[in-house]
Amino acid sequence: MEAAKSLVGIFLSLIGILFFFNNKNMGKGAYNFYRKFYTAKNLTIMFKILGAFLFIIGLVVAFSE
User: Fold this and answer.
1) Contact predicate 47/54, CB 8 Å
2) How far, in Å, CA of 39 to CA of 45, rounded?
3) DSSP-assigned letter for residue 22
4) How much is the pLDDT for 65?
5) Which domain holds residue 42?
6) How confident is the model at residue 52 (pLDDT cuts 50, 70, 90)?
7) C-alpha angle with apex 12: 7 to 13, nearest 5 degrees?
8) What angle, 0 to 180 degrees and rounded to 10, lies between the N-to-C axes of helices 2-21 and 23-37?
9) Number of domains observed in the structure of the chain
10) Under 8 Å CB-to-CB from 19, ≥6 apart: which residues?
């Protein structure tokens, strides 16, 4: 279990470093992507899917051992 936690920690640290140092390039690309992708209709659909997903995962976590 400790090896899995360390691996996840290293992975998250590397992603954090990537976001910290490459934020200008990612910001420009993300802006263009979100401007086209996030409309009111698309956001409504995404939130419904996210809500259903979270509800199902919550049930799985609540009833798992």
Assistant:
1) no
2) 10
3) S
4) 60
5) 2-63
6) very high
7) 95
8) 90
9) 1
10) 26
